[in-house]
Amino acid sequence: MAAGFYVERPRNSRAAEAGARTVHAERRMIGTSVNATGTVRLRVGSEVRVGSQLSGIVKKLNVTVGSQVRAGEVIAEIDDAPIEARLADANAQAELDLATMDRARVNSERAQKLAAAGLIPVQQAQDLQFALNEARAKHQKSLRDRDLVTVDLNYVAIRSPISGIVASVSTQEGETVAASFTAPTFVTIIGDNALQLVAMVDETDIANVRRGNPVTFTVDSFAARDFPGTVGSIAPKATIVSGVVNYEVTININKEAKLLKPDMTANVSIQTAQHEALLLPAAAVQRDGDQVFVYRPGKGGPEKKTVIVGSTERGMVEIKKGISPDDEILLINNTNNPQAAPVS
Predict the structure, then answer these.
(1) Which residue positions in the chain have pLDDT lower than 50?
(2) Interatomic CA distance for residues 161 and 236, integer angstroms
(3) I need a labelling partner for 196 at 20 to 30 A (CA). Which of 27, 149, 158, 181 fits?
């Protein structure tokens, strides 16, 4: 990008009377941009509702609205006394079934020896073998039941599935929750880097927008701050409102997203290309109705020169036609020329 500079020339008396100094237009690369309005939104799937798989009393709640949490962090605990009681009962049942199985095994082994010696009927030995098989299956079931209770015990501590910020809390310590059909929601968490910008681009401009185009945008809450972004995707289907055709352009926010909030309105500028342009300070370019012009120093006083302008960028106006880089242009004090208004 070529560096531009202003050159101040000696003023003639008439220019001095007009309160003016002279500058030269500068050549530099500027971006061709598409302007649009947009809204800061949450990404799909970035908002997670965390609930409980168990019914019971909320013994402890570790977060409030606005709390920052990490993935795996305990955010709430259910009273585990009923689960511990069930686990103790399951352990006792497993021990009882183990003893029954051991007794059935001893009886079956003894019967097999007696049947082999012809001291008892073979059918009796077979019945005792079936009893052993049933006892063994019952013991296996009691072990599985104990495992299920152990799994429930792991659900007593409710952990955050993602890292983010707590957006809402819908329960309190001491409340009883019932997880009969659906898991009751404890908290809602918005994940980190969950925001994106969705801009509505007019159909006349959408052909110039490409994925990866750099973006700058502002929001009313931080009007003096430019937020950077990148075009992430372009909707293939238009959105038509009151006969106006627009396309949704999703923009990834590159940094400083923590300053933004969902549903903020943004003024968006999508840079689609760069080109070399001749630029003048906006204060040097005047407008009178539909006419756009600049002043050049002349022997008889300032001379008006009509120009054709393009885009405006950071206080500079693109001059498409009317002057050259060698022309001296006056910066007119508008208090002495009230009919002329600078182009902004």
Answers:
(1) 1-18, 335-340
(2) 33
(3) 158
Nearest-angstrom CA–CA distance, 325 and 6: 11
Report the C-alpha gap between 315 and 320 in whole angstroms: 16
Three-state DSSP class for residue 211: coil
Helix extents (H) in the chain: 13-17, 81-116, 122-154
Q: Which two tokens stand for residue 96?
A: 């009882």
Structure-token pair, residue 200 = 């509505």
Q: What is the pLDDT of residue 181?
A: 55
DSSP 248: E
Burial class from Cβ neighbours inside 10 Å (0-12, 13-18, 19+) for residue 12 reads: middle
Prediction pTM value: 0.56
Q: What angle do CA 223, 314, 326 make, to 5 degrees?
A: 170
Q: Are strands 265-281 and 308-313 parallel, antiparallel or unpaired?
A: unpaired
* Burial profile 69-79: b = 16 or more Cβ within 10 angstroms, e = fewer: beeeeebbbbb
At 245, list the tokens.
Answer: 């055709």
Contact residues for 261 (Cβ-Cβ < 8 A; gap 6+): 40, 221
In sequence order, what DSSP letters do the residues of 82-136 get, joined into one string?
A: HHHHHHHHHHHHHHHHHHHHHHHHHHHHHHHHHHHTTSS-HHHHHHHHHHHHHHH
The residue assigned the tokens 């300032």 is 302
Residue 114 CB coordination number (10 Å): 14
The set of residues, in sequence order, having a beta carbon less than 8 Å from that of 18 and lying 6+ positions away, is: 295, 301, 302, 330, 332, 333, 336, 337
Count of Cβ atoms closer than 10 Å to residue 18 Cβ: 20
Tell me how far apart the alpha carbons of residues 46 and 38 are, in angstroms, rounded to a whole number: 19
